[in-house]
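Two entries, shown back to back:
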Amino acid sequence: MLVTHKKHIKLLFLLVFVLFSFQLNAQEIPPINVFTPQQYNGEYQNWAISQSLDKTIYVANDAGLLEYNGAKWTRYNSPNETILRSVNVVGDKIYTGCYMEFGYWKKNSFGILEYTSLSQKKDFSVVEDEQFWQIVNLDKWMIFRSLNRIYIYNTLDETFKIIESKFTITKLFKVDNTIYFQDINKGIFKIINGKKSLFIDSEIIRNNAIVNIFNYQGNLLVQTENNGIYAYKNNILIPWEKEINKSLVNYSVYSSIRLKDGGFAFGTISNGVIILNKNGDLVYKINQNLGLSNNTVLSVFEDLNNNLWLGLDNGINCINSKSPIKIFNDFKGELGSVYTSAIKNEILYLGTNQGLFYRDINDTTESFKFIDGTQGQVWNLQIIDNQLFCGHNSGTYIIEKNKAKKISNIQGTWSIKKIEGAPNLLMQGNYSGLYILEKINNNWTFRNKIEGFDISSRFFEIVNNTTIFVSHEYKGVYEITCNSAFTKIKTVKTKNISKGAHSSLIKYNNNLNYVYREGFYKYDFEKNKFVKDTIISSFFPSDNYVSGKLIHNKESNSLWGFTNTDVIYIKPGKLSAKPEVKRIALPKRLRNSVTSYENVIHIKGNEYLFGTASGYLIIDTEKFNNATGNVALNQIISSKNNGESTSLSLNEFADLKPNSNNIEFLFSFTQFNKFNVVEYQHKLDGIYNTWSNWSSTPSVRYKNLPSGDYTFVVRARVGEDVSKNATYQFYINKPWYASNVAVIAYVLSTIFIILLLHYFYNRYYKKQREKILIKAQRDLERKELENKQQQMQFKNQQLQQDIENKNRELAISTMSLIKKNEFLNSIKAELNNKETDANIKSVIKIIDKNLNNTDDWKFFQEAFNNADKDFLQKLKIKHSSLTPNDLKLCAYLRLNLSSKEIAPLLNISPRSVEVKRYRLRKKMNLPHKTSLANYIIEL
């Protein structure tokens, strides 16, 4: 009977566990930041987590110590390249423990961690194969736990106390400034004055591994690994009287902490993390099915901003437990993308691309259920006169709890609106135009199509009883007038405003508004045109445009809009016509909504539901405060063009060499909220004096900076909140050839060179002057010589002229002699032909005397010598055998006279001249081929 009873109890526990697990699959959970081993550059397992005062996270990982500043992960290998098992940050020291080693890390002035061993410097030795699994601080003491010993380190005098154990020490527990630990098979001890003292000796303790001890409402709670939690009251252990404790017996808990708000977080071996509130009630059970990287939670840590960090068997997760956002993710794909939502009678309805689903709004553990008959795309959910209308791809439905009643078969119902003054009529926009629904006998039915307009009417607004505005993103905005019976279109006008993708039209506070990429426009009915609202348009810049979809929430009379980086929340101004605009930093990539089909509904208080492509978000607008803090400079690196780099001190002014002019700055703004996007802006005063564009990159590198003084300035932004500036000053020296000493040397060298040049120029000019004088003298002498030569030339010319004159005179005299002799010979010949007479003979003698007149020869010889000086002398010297008659013949030949011309001059016949010439050749020994006349002329 007892066995059967025990079986029933076990079955009951199992049933509760299964139901519990099943229901929690539909939880709305806080955002989870997931970090994989590839992201943090480490191994899979993460044994402990801690945080410094500047909010930097440190993780004991299989590969070493991990550091995360919100922008970058950095890994430091453990001192002896073994698995790092424990970490605890106290002040500016990061204490760690691993295999056969423990000590602390501390940042140097360059922002890099340096390790100091504590276990190697003391007069004790660690136990063989000892690993240090836990580090706890208490006042001035640091306590290091292995499985065999507890080392108590006094940080003031640097002394150690060691507590030995013959059994295994499983955990250390710090409760109200008292240190407890479990000695397996012995009980729970507490440390008093550096010595252990048995505190709880119980069969329950001896038979169970203790995970943690908490102070709860004045009593101690002792948490076991596999058998739930016990309360220690009046020296007795009794099961914790909480409902959750019945389920905890089905989990194997490995790690746990008490939260700052009094709640609890339990990390399990195979079921993720369980979070309780301060009353011990279940808040969340989050496992791998709901977004964790792994179900084995090796360590749990709550940071300064109440984020819950989980060191997993495969990765690191950060749960933003105090985030104003809760997420419902449809991991199984049963719901699809949420296009619309509504709440009626405490039931939440979700219209998706797969149909219509519902559940109780107050029971977040309840699974969504499908409403039969609504398969397919749901476009719109609207509550009109306390009835829920569903605009569907296949028509229009009225929803009553979990039932759907079809009232129209017209495909593609985009939206449904009331007609003012016609309480029994509704207008709906469909794929093919505008249609009218009518209430008859309290039942809504399809009445008619408004004929004359067949354009898809997703966005339409009824301005008055006969005027309707319709916006089509690819065709534009239409102003339509119809008859009073809403049966026929009378006029259709296209408005003069640009059309564009994802544009929309909406009526808000009696204003007709149109939004597209170029801004936010209001319709001016007096001017009959859309006019740009510059104030609201400033919140929808074109470079940040995503969707013109606007949503009017009637409960809060607010208008919601969406950009690439934010959600815009607009409310009417309280004391002026200027609207109140609030910007919520929620970028598109994180809100994961379907573009142009964004949807928002009010839940309660300040909570709103946002539909997403995989479920929905719950946002509390009043709790949505942007992160606060300061931007930090983490590391500064200077490098040369050859790649050689050096880290610079973060605390000192840097005086850099001229070739170390490539500077890289690494900075961060430490926050871990998944939905907060951190952006940075920087400038470098001294060269780039204006702020850069906002960027999410947490570093910047300046290359080949010239010499000079610089101040680097960086700031961070989360949403609209901008942090204070962080600055760093440095100086790049001038190269040696541009230094002050070099400049002085250049000046002195220049002066010396100028003087030297002046000396050489003077010397040069002096030499040049001497050369010029010499040249002038030479030119003068040359001129004088030229003048003399010219004078000589003139004289020569005069002489030549004289010679020519003499030659002319010689020629004239010679011709005169020739003519005279010819004349005398002709007279003589005539006389010889006459009879001989004494008188004639006397005349002939006179003629002969004149023919042989030596005076004529002398005259000729004188003239010839004047014309051809020294010719006869040269000829006499060369041919000494020549007679005077021979010389006379040569003179005539020199004048190039023929034998016939020579004959009268010699008073002989031409034949005799030829004979003389022949004899002359003989005397001169001239060759036969040589011309006598040419020889004499050329002599």
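entry 2 starts here
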Amino acid sequence: MSTVVIGAPVAAQTAAQPQDAEYTRLIRQYLTDKRISTELVDHMPASDSVPSPLKFFGRIPGTPGELTYATDIERYYRELARTSPRVRLLQLGTSEEGRNMVALVVADADVLRDLDRDKVALAALGDPRRTSEAQARELIRTAKPIYWITSGIHSPETGGPETLIELAYRLAVEDTPFIDHIRKNVITFITPVVEVDGREKIVDNYYYGKKTGKVRPPNMYWGKYVAHDDNRDGMGQVLKLTQNITRGVLDWHPTVLHDLHEARSYLYVSTGTGPYNPSLSPLQTQEWWQLAQAELTEMSKRNVPGVWTYGFYDGWVPNYLFWIANTHNSLGRFYEVESYGPDLKPDLKLEPVDTSHEWYRPNPPLPSIRWGPRNSVNIQESGLLFALHRVADDRALYLENYWIKNRQSIETGRTGAVNAWVIPAAQHASGNVAEMINDLRRQGVEVSRADAAFSAGGVAVAPGDYVIRADQPYRTLADMYFAVQSYPATNPRPYDDTGWTMQYMRNVRLSPVKDASVLTRPMTLMTADAVPPGGLSGTGGTVLIADTGDTALVGVRFRLKGVRMLAAEAPFEAGGKHYPTGSFILPAANRASVESVLATLGLRGEAVAAVPAVATHELTAPRIGFLHSWVYTQDEGWWRAALDHYGIPYSYFADTLARRGRLRAKYDVLIYPTVGSGPRDQIVGVPMTGKDPIPYKKTALTPNLGVLDSADDIRGGLGPDGLAALQDFVRAGGTLLGDGSTVELLASFGAAPGVSIQKPSQLYTKGALMRGVFADRSSPLVYGYAGKEMPIYFGGDPVMTVGATARDASNTYFDPNGPGVGVAQNTTPNMNPAMPAPFERPAATSVPNANAAAQGVPPAAAAEVPKTPPGPVSPFAVPKPRVVMEFPAAANDILLSGLLSGGQVLAKKPLLVDVTLGHGHMVLYALRPFWRWQTQGSYRLAFNALLNWNHLDAGAARRNATATGGE
């Protein structure tokens, strides 16, 4: 191990290297508190050949009032690679808007010359099936670990990219023993900006305010689709940035992936409070602590205040960017630092919750400090250098750990509880199954197809079924995705979602195989994507397309714009084949056009001689308007991503324009997803304060704004006039879709007759998977679905009630980020694990759950739902909306995966409601049909509303007649 001289300037450790006096002077000038520094970053060496940030940009990172565009950071990195033999630049891919994502590689020149050799070595350590113990030991002795630092995924967190400008230069030019030890023993990858599109918008926005002195618009757009949740795409992986990082992990097998953030004071080093994801190797979580303690120890030696671990985040859900490393047996971790700014904070005050002396925070942040962007650079860069140095010291240890984690994954697959997972290829919605398989393969999971029928562990496998063997390195990922999550309410508060079981979210049948003999059965590894067979057979002028539940079916309507289409309102037989309700009928279709579209979408059609004798309605392609707020676009982006992916056209416009009215003249369907902040903010929007308008558009000063939408003034929100315009739109025959806060908006202001919102204080849940029961199978909203129920994602609100009055809405929401109501949080909560109900169950109404108390369900509530006695008709009574899906009647049947306490308040509450108003409809979702590119199983619940927008009453009269007859 190398030796660091504590307290001695690192620059003084090698007298031969000249120092950049001006750069060093500026570091000291911009540092607003000398305690927020170490000897590693209080100086800067000079170079005659490699330009410093000061020379290239004319300023140093940490300069108050300045930010750097991602494009300019890339230009600087290219110059470093051109001028230094210790630097290379890799292209990772591009963003949705076409900007480059890069990784700078810094190491000793000799190490860089052998970069390809190290790449091969790390890949070999990543697959112990093809690397013997002796070979692995030799590779561990000679190979160099890759430490990959990423930043800028959260665009308003501006300091990470600035810090990495300087870190790259320091690693490239400084010749102290400390830095030289890092270069000789670690290959450092640096991706300074992950969300490159968002970075340019944030910098534009900052300089607009600085140069004009006017109010800046909110940073409502980062990337094309989402903002903060770009760091929640680790499982779904629809965003280019996630795909690019994943390809990099699969290609380079980094030992560590370290993501930089800004949300805590002054430097939080990730370990988390737990509970830790049980699919992780214990070695993985020990590494979190091992490296964190090394950084904390070094910073404590220098008495830097506010460096801590443990008391933030949990370690549960694998949807973050850095978890791409954890799911692939690398070491994923992150920092949170005090905000960079870049403006000075002359008197930064913190609350006692941030400054208290705790066992995990023995040198806490100060109640008050003068903070500036250079402080952020100093503390973060110091931590990174100590981490890099520790990995350089323990190079062989971290490589050995990586080898062992991969080996353990394989061995667990051979000898552990689950040896494989089988996904039937011929199940309902087989095209959706193929899409799931392809998404898994893109994340590195090995998938095979059964060569012949066999049975193992009680699971019958047909030829062609998908088999995911557990004896593979990335079993960790598969196990994490397919496991059912149990999150007892007595755990520490969850940081994010608590349930994410992939087959539930995608409504796909998957069976774990608990029999090692499955690994000996005949199967062939897939080497290309699964492609559902599509095309057209038969003869005749009418084309029938069975609605088998595949989401791709929606594309038929929008790709064949001029073709007449009908939807069957009942099942029927034709040509010896069965066609479910919702099947498409295309009279007098052009065979060649239809066949081409079906082949592209992986769907099968049958040409027959005549239109079948079955009740139908027209499928008219709607004119779709997509309504957004200027306050918040986070969740609506997941809707847009799905619409774009499946080729559904729409017009995107702001709520401020809705106030003008006449919406029905332009649109047949309006999509108005949750704004997230609540009904009041939707009405008010960006407040109409100040004398100046607040523009959001592309100008010479803001060339990166206005990509998705633009306006000369974004103030005002939906307003009362906009809310009235939405009602007028529906009354005139339009269909309005909404979820989340939009449901609460429409219900709270009386715009959705018969719908009210309850706010039960007993309810405690966060991002869990629950059972949805079809209350009305005749509704077109559930065309394509099989069975009587399906898994859905429920975030905790809104809790809808139908047929009640606004007076029923009482109490307040339980805040899942606050203390549990009647729930004691302890450090051994798993001694009484919550027991989610299995999704597949006998035909009985309820599945007994022995652990009802763990879910906060009193015995009486678990047994039955209290019935309200009849009473006089309320003067506030309104027609009851059509409930299409609801929670189960038995509270113990609700939770499928994740956290739920107080579930009895959800019993029989609506999940999907069709409200009739005038000649139109409001389709309101308490579930989230589009959530982080994970809930593909519920996409059709929204797409069906688009397909059947002007015939949502189909089946209602028939159902009512049946009910009257004593169903």
